[in-house]
Every structure is written in C-alpha cells, then in structure tokens.
Amino acid sequence: MPDLGDFATALDDTMYVVTAASGGRRAGCLVGFASPCSIRPPRFVVWLSTVNHTHGVAREAHHLTVHVLGREQRALAELFGGETGDRVDKFARVAWRPGHGGSPVLSDVRVWFTGWVEARLPGGDHEGFVLAPVEQAESVGEPPTAPLRYGDVRDLAAGHPA
C-alpha cells in the first residue's frame, strides 16, 4: 500500500506538545497530526500514537492541553518528542501548572488551549481526540516568530518509537 510520501513532507505541519493528567499521572508528547476540525462549534482534533505513553494517560483523561511551540522552543520538542514518560518525568524538567481538569499547562508556551475530550476516533496506529475548547491562554502577547514545524524536528529520534 502506498504511503503519503512527498505529499506529507510538503505540508510541513505545525508541531504541538499535547499534555494530559489522570489518576495522579501526567504525560505529554510531541504531536504533528492535529488540526481544527469544526468552526461552529469550535473543535480541534489531535492524533496520538497508540504505543505512546501519553496515549494511555489521555485515554483516561477528560481534558487535554494543546501547546503551539515556537521555532525557538526546539528544546521542549526534544524533551517531549525524544524522551518517553515510561522512563522520564518530563514535568520535573519544565515549569508548568495544572490547568482546567488538571491538564498540565507549560509555563514557557504562550499559545495553548485546553479542551474537553468530546470524542475519540480510531485512525490506524493513532487515535484521534476531538477537543471542545474550555480554557486558553489569557493573552499570548507576542506570538512566536514562527511556529515549530515538522521540518525543524525531522531529525528528532522518537522517545517511544512505534
């Protein structure tokens, strides 16, 4: 079966850090598959790898927080994409606070929102979480000069490869 190859590469999508908390556990991972999926009502979908540690926590969570990284935040991308929560407490290495529903909000990220998990969708080796926004950054101030894109982290080795 063919893959998306050059089509997917040409998109060079924005990269996000998605965080979750449930049952006293916190998790977060770097996500490249995400998009607005409805205007009215506003909805956003994030796709989490089913082998990822964050997926297990997100399945039990009622809220997820989606953070837009700026290009200057590659170190956060390396932490949340290059390490696995199975072995590392990523939140011990960054400033954060509990947001709506306890979902972790990364203090150094100015553009974020927390969404209530309205639905889950099967998607091959990923599961989609449809989010209804319930909280967002009060003021983003100056937005990142440019969002971190897939091309900026293409060389990053996944912390929890499939």
From TrEMBL:
<dbReference type="InterPro" id="IPR012349">
    <property type="entry name" value="Split_barrel_FMN-bd"/>
</dbReference>
<dbReference type="InterPro" id="IPR002563">
    <property type="entry name" value="Flavin_Rdtase-like_dom"/>
</dbReference>
<dbReference type="GO" id="GO:0010181">
    <property type="term" value="F:FMN binding"/>
</dbReference>
<dbReference type="InterPro" id="IPR050268">
    <property type="entry name" value="NADH-dep_flavin_reductase"/>
</dbReference>
<keyword id="KW-0560">Oxidoreductase</keyword>
<dbReference type="GO" id="GO:0042602">
    <property type="term" value="F:riboflavin reductase (NADPH) activity"/>
</dbReference>
<dbReference type="Pfam" id="PF01613">
    <property type="entry name" value="Flavin_Reduct"/>
</dbReference>
<protein>
    <submittedName>
        <fullName>Oxidoreductase</fullName>
    </submittedName>
</protein>
<feature type="domain" description="Flavin reductase like">
    <location>
        <begin position="4"/>
        <end position="157"/>
    </location>
</feature>
